[in-house]
Structure formats: C-alpha cells, structure tokens
Amino acid sequence: MAAIYSLYIINKSGGLIFYKDYGSSGRMDTNDSLRVASLWHSMHAISQQLSPTVGCLGIELLEADTFDLHCFQSLTGTKFFVVCEPGTQHMEGLLKVIYELYTDYVLKNPFYEMEMPIRCELFDINLSQATQKDRVALLGR
Amino acid sequence: MQFFGGSDISPSPPAPTASGNNAHMMYVFNRNGVCLLYREWNRPLHTLNAQQDHKLMFGLLFSLKSLTAKMDPTSMDKGNLGVPQLPGQGCSFHSFRTNTYKLSFMETPSGIKFEIMQFQFLGRGFGENIRFVQIILITHPKTGDLRESLKYIYNLYVEYVVKNPIYTPGAPIRCELFNTSLDQYVRSISYLLFKPRPSGTGDLVLQKAYSLMLISIIKALISVSKSVVKNLGSRDILNII
Amino acid sequence: MATTACFIIVSRNDIPIYEAEVGSATKREDAAQMHQFILHAALDIVQDLAWTTSAMYLKAIDRFNDLVVSVYVTAGHILCVSDFNCVSDKKNTEKMENDIYVIFFAFSVGEVHELYIKILLNPLYLPGSRIASSHFDTKVRALARKYL
Amino acid sequence: MIGVGKIKQYSNVLDKPLSKGKQEVSSSAFAFLFSELVQYNQTQVDNIAELERRLEDAGYAVGARVLELLCHRDKGNRRETRLLGILSFVHSTVWKVLFGKVADSLEKGTEHEDEYMISEKELLVNRFISIPKDMGTFNCGAFVAGIVRGVLDGAGFPAVVTAHFVPMEGQHRPRTTILIKFGEEVLRREARLAVPCDIIGSLFDFCVCSSEHGNFNDLVKAIIATPVDVKYTISLHPNSFDLGQDELS
C-alpha cells in the first residue's frame, strides 16, 4: 500500500515552514527537520546548476532504496516535497493538491505572515482530508 | 512538458551522439572526490569549467548521500547529518530526476563479491582503494532504471581498469580499451532507451538495423575475456538485448 | 401655466443634500424661503406616511394654497421632495392639471433616483453628504426642463 | 482589460446605465482583497474589538449602497416597510447578490423577542481564514455584520449586528451566525404597524414569549396599541397564562 512518510514545505529561502510526519519510524526532531529542509534547498539549487541543458527546474524526484522523494517547486520558489514509499503513484498529483491548499488556506489567510511557519488550522484540516482522500494509507506506526 | 526532442514519438530513433539536447554524460569518482573519469557524449550546455563541475557534482552527491541516510524513514537510528557514510551503510539514493536530465548514481561497496578472488595477492589496502568508486550517469529524464547498466559499466571498469597492471589507483583512467567498450555499451544503451517500443508492425528498416547492432554487441562481448561473460548473469545479458 | 418648482433631496436625518430651483416662472426672492418652508413642513407628514405603503412615489401629500407638494422616498429613506405651483385659470381643471404634473414629476424623479444611486455607488461619496457633482446638477436641470 | 465585447466609453459615470450586474468576481481575488483589508486594519488598531469595529464600518458603507442598488434593480422600486420583509430581503436578495447563494438559515431569537439570527455554514468571507488562538473570539464576519447593519439602518430598521462562531458537532469548522438585535423603536413601530389581519400573528408571538417570562404588560401594551376600531374577541385561555381572573379582565 502506498504510504506517505512525511511532508515538508520550505519557503523560497530554504527555511522550513511546515513539517508533517505521517508515521515514519523515528520522528525527526525539529532541528533535524530544519537541517534537512535547508540541505534539500541547496541540493535543489546545485542540481539546477549542473544541468547539461538549459532550463532546469531542479530535482523533481529522488529515488532511494527505502523511499522516494517527490518535490514540487512553485513559481515563487516555495518547495513542497513528500517522502513516500518507493514506487508510490500520483505523488505529483498530491503535491499539486497540497499546493492548491497552500494557496487557498495559507496565502489567503490574513493572519499568516509570508515565509513564516504555517499555523493555519484550516490548512491542517484540509490537508489531512486531502491525504486521506487519495487513499494513501497513513502508516499508523 | 515536451521540452526537448520528442524522443518517444520521432519515428527514427535519434542517433545517440548528435541527437538534439538530451544529454549523455558519465562521471566516475573515487572516495576522496577525485574525478577518475569524465566521459561526455552529448552536453549542449557547459555552465562551469570542468574542474569546478566535477567538484560541484561530487559535493552534490556527497551531501545527497548523507541527506538520504538522514531521511531514511525506516531505520530508527539516525546518524547526524554531514557525517561521511561508509559505503553501503545506511540507505543511499540511486537516482534523481529533474525536468531536463536524470542522474543515476551507483556506489560500489557491493562490488566486493567477485573481486575477492583477483585481489587476494595484491593485499587488502590496494584493493580497497580501487574498489570503492562512484559511477554517475546523466541521461535523458525519461530513461528508465539504469542500475543494471551501472553495474555493467562497473564490471567494465573492473575488467579494464582495475586489472590493468599499469594503472595506478586513484589516477584518472587512461585505458583505451575501457573507453572503447564503454562507448559501445553506452551507444547501445542510449539506442535501446530511445528505441520506440517496437509495435507489431515496426518498419523493417528498424528491425534490420537493430539486429545488426545486436550481433556487434555479442561479438564485442566474446572478444572480451571469458570471465566477464561468465560472471554476467543471464538476466544482465537479456537486459542488454 | 407657469410652473415654478423647487426640488430638494433630503437625506435620512433631514439634511438637505441637493436643492434646485426649476421651472420657468420668474423667481421671486422671497419665494425661495417659502419653498424651503413648505417642503420642510411636508417632511413630518412623510415620516409616518412612508411606513404605510411600500411604494416609493407618494404622489401629492400636501397642499399649500396653489402649491402641491409630492415626495419620492427611496429605499434608504432619502426623500426627493418637490412642489409645483400650477396656476390654472379654471377651477375644475385644476384637479386634472395637478395629476399631469404629478405624473411628469414621477417620470423625472425616477431618473433622478437612478442618478442618485450612481452618485451613491461612488465609493468616495459619503452617504448623506451634499451632492456637489456638477454633472448631477446639469442632468437634473435637463430632466426638469424636459418634463416640467 | 479584455472586456466582453466593446466597452462603451462614457464621458461621465452618470451616463453609465446601472448594469444588470451579472459579472462574476473571482473568489480568490476577493479573498486576497479582503485579507489585505484585514491586514491593513490590523496594523491600525491595537485591540481586537476595535479591529472588528473597523471591519464593521467598512461593511456598513457597503450595506448602505447595496440596499439602494438592489431595491432599485431587483425589487423594482418597492420599499420594505415590515420587519420580516426587510429580513427576508437581506436573507435572500442581498445574500444571493453578494455571496451567490441564499443564506443557510434565518431564525428568530428564542430568548429575546427582538433578536434574529442569519447563520451560514461557510461564510464566503471566512472560507479561507483561520483565526490564530491568541485572537480569541475575533470573527472576520464582522464585515458582513456591517453590511447587514448598513442595509437595515438604511431601510429604517436600526439594529446592533454582531458575528459569532457557533461550533457545530461533527464539523471541524464552526458555523458563522450573524446576530441582529433590533432597536426599541423598530419594535414599537412594528407593533403599531401590525395591520389587523395579522394582529393575531404578532399577538401570538407576544403571548408565546411574554407567557414564558410573564412580562404581561408587553401583551397589554400591544393590545392597546392596535387600531381601536378593530373588534376582536381574544380568548385567553387562563391556565396557559397562569394568571389571576382580575388581570385577565
């Protein structure tokens, strides 16, 4: 069963603004998640530079032995990436849905300050509905 | 987003070398980041000079490795970031894809099993240094899983480089034989990768060229020392064909 | 039949926000105050009359010797009060002539009401403040000439 | 701006016809605009109540204009003179034009007679807004409350209108309720205006409420205030009002 392990959202300067763990064993503490987020931000940038052809938008999918990492970068540089079981399908679709929720429930919320960690409960509510809706089993570990 | 030459729909498969802008390059690094080999078959864009490019690539791979080890969701003990991983320890990534290229990566701690026999007499230290190498293939983003091809290239590497007595470990690879067989192999891979799935009625010309190429590969394989062929599992050969 | 008409738009708390002297009769200087006086007198009648009917146009609600006062109440209780002085030679036709003017008034005030709404929709116009737009003034006078 | 067909240029806004107003507005454009409105006001105030008041004032101006426009355009120049009339006008016509749908429900307050509630499961204004914990009971629906107050005030029904979150069980998001509390003179006029034919209706309302907490004098006032020439025999069943015989006479 396809499963999401965790979801990260980082702002355009690489700061982690949202981290949700869906039951991957050994939940990462905040410092590590921050480090991972900024590391990924720089990896993403370097991979653009190394591109052999013009117009590279950075890493979209990283395949590792025990997980896949799908990343979606919005035009303004906000990156959404989700860590899931290898071979999970329609993760790009899920990231697009999450991006839509972000534009709806975070950017349109007057009490959200840009580039700051996300504290909008409507975003959380809709996010959990979206992840359930995609029949993506959450590892209830 | 059809960004580059329609590799799937164009009737005649693009000749691997001169075809549009789907890049095809290969790096081989050793443990301390020295670039043993950089082969470039098709690279339309050169952003950095060679030296920086290699350093940046190795840096990218090094931190990506520690990142994946850190993010491994299945293992409980999380080493802290940045600590160099011993080869084979912790989970490591095997490829990443961007919209313009796909990078397939292989680290060869697992290459120990069939060299033991050859390196017995050379002593452990020597073998260790040679054996650990990273091979990176950069191809068209839509290419499939290249782990098998990387293994095959690694075998070529072991055959032509490691066993070449005049080769000093850690130095950039100069072996001619290795380069030629590598070129042949890569040409065959890229040919295969871009080959449109032969739908039943595929035109005859394609079939003929295809079989010709097949024969040349087999001839090349036979010419190489027997041990290489013996070690290749039937699955590998099938995969190549 | 000289008709002098004074046309006032009064906001909710009885503050006049627009006045216009229309009609062809010669202006008598004391006439102005007299008009004001009559129209303001009519305001009290309007207060409770407005609640008994849902129509906006309250025909002739008051009469002062030869002046007929009629009112048009908008949804926001803005009153367009106007009076006509219809000098008629024959007694019996007076009833009929009044109606004619009253009907004319209905036409013109309907359009004035639309003009008022357009003024109101201007976000920079504070509801209840004086209408100082010259366009509004020229338009109202044109309407008056056309109908009265 | 790519207008639909050629946009006729008018020398002055007064020549522009009052359009039927069927253009759609993109909801995200409105959401961003409203969010900016709230953020701007937030920088100007120092406490929540004042922020709500400012939102309400913004809404009030909109309400006053909406009343005039809709009465002219949709109601065909008919004025609302009755309480229930104006409430249903707000509940259906205004809501349909502003938010595209009729409000979910319009109820009469149970404990106070002069209170009415319009509630909406997902108010368009609050759809994307999540209130941070430290802002307590702040509700951006104050803007809509302002609109409602603007409409009611314009139509001659002064009222205090506030917006509240009412949690619904089994729902993540609370319902937004607009509480309308009419002024004293509105009720008096309503009573005075109660045309004979529905005298029984409004009397009945009075009996129902007054009997509950026994302020019988409202009932008496209502009876006296009705136009005298209307003869009605009102059978007040004694035990339903636990009253003494003399009070009934």
Automatic annotation (TrEMBL), chain A:
<dbReference type="GO" id="GO:0006888">
    <property type="term" value="P:endoplasmic reticulum to Golgi vesicle-mediated transport"/>
</dbReference>
<comment type="similarity">
    <text>Belongs to the TRAPP small subunits family. TRAPPC4 subfamily.</text>
</comment>
<protein>
    <recommendedName>
        <fullName>Trafficking protein particle complex subunit</fullName>
    </recommendedName>
</protein>
<keyword id="KW-0931">ER-Golgi transport</keyword>
<keyword id="KW-0813">Transport</keyword>
<dbReference type="InterPro" id="IPR007233">
    <property type="entry name" value="TRAPPC"/>
</dbReference>
<comment type="subunit">
    <text>Part of the multisubunit transport protein particle (TRAPP) complex.</text>
</comment>
<keyword id="KW-0256">Endoplasmic reticulum</keyword>
<dbReference type="InterPro" id="IPR011012">
    <property type="entry name" value="Longin-like_dom_sf"/>
</dbReference>
<keyword id="KW-0333">Golgi apparatus</keyword>
<dbReference type="GO" id="GO:0005794">
    <property type="term" value="C:Golgi apparatus"/>
</dbReference>
<dbReference type="GO" id="GO:0030008">
    <property type="term" value="C:TRAPP complex"/>
</dbReference>
From TrEMBL, chain B:
<keyword id="KW-0931">ER-Golgi transport</keyword>
<dbReference type="Pfam" id="PF04099">
    <property type="entry name" value="Sybindin"/>
</dbReference>
<dbReference type="InterPro" id="IPR007233">
    <property type="entry name" value="TRAPPC"/>
</dbReference>
<dbReference type="GO" id="GO:0005794">
    <property type="term" value="C:Golgi apparatus"/>
</dbReference>
<comment type="subunit">
    <text>Part of the multisubunit transport protein particle (TRAPP) complex.</text>
</comment>
<keyword id="KW-0256">Endoplasmic reticulum</keyword>
<protein>
    <recommendedName>
        <fullName>Trafficking protein particle complex subunit</fullName>
    </recommendedName>
</protein>
<keyword id="KW-0813">Transport</keyword>
<dbReference type="GO" id="GO:0005783">
    <property type="term" value="C:endoplasmic reticulum"/>
</dbReference>
<keyword id="KW-0333">Golgi apparatus</keyword>
<dbReference type="GO" id="GO:0006888">
    <property type="term" value="P:endoplasmic reticulum to Golgi vesicle-mediated transport"/>
</dbReference>
<comment type="similarity">
    <text>Belongs to the TRAPP small subunits family.</text>
</comment>
UniProtKB/TrEMBL annotation, chain C:
<dbReference type="InterPro" id="IPR006722">
    <property type="entry name" value="Sedlin"/>
</dbReference>
<dbReference type="GO" id="GO:0006888">
    <property type="term" value="P:endoplasmic reticulum to Golgi vesicle-mediated transport"/>
</dbReference>
<protein>
    <recommendedName>
        <fullName>Trafficking protein particle complex subunit 2</fullName>
    </recommendedName>
</protein>
<dbReference type="GO" id="GO:0005737">
    <property type="term" value="C:cytoplasm"/>
</dbReference>
<dbReference type="Pfam" id="PF04628">
    <property type="entry name" value="Sedlin_N"/>
</dbReference>
UniProtKB/TrEMBL annotation, chain D:
<protein>
    <recommendedName>
        <fullName>Trafficking protein particle complex subunit</fullName>
    </recommendedName>
</protein>
<keyword id="KW-0813">Transport</keyword>
<dbReference type="GO" id="GO:1990070">
    <property type="term" value="C:TRAPPI protein complex"/>
</dbReference>
<dbReference type="GO" id="GO:0005783">
    <property type="term" value="C:endoplasmic reticulum"/>
</dbReference>
<comment type="similarity">
    <text>Belongs to the TRAPP small subunits family. BET3 subfamily.</text>
</comment>
<keyword id="KW-0931">ER-Golgi transport</keyword>
<dbReference type="GO" id="GO:0006888">
    <property type="term" value="P:endoplasmic reticulum to Golgi vesicle-mediated transport"/>
</dbReference>
<dbReference type="InterPro" id="IPR016696">
    <property type="entry name" value="TRAPP-I_su5"/>
</dbReference>
<dbReference type="GO" id="GO:1990071">
    <property type="term" value="C:TRAPPII protein complex"/>
</dbReference>
<dbReference type="GO" id="GO:1990072">
    <property type="term" value="C:TRAPPIII protein complex"/>
</dbReference>
<dbReference type="InterPro" id="IPR007194">
    <property type="entry name" value="TRAPP_component"/>
</dbReference>
<keyword id="KW-0333">Golgi apparatus</keyword>
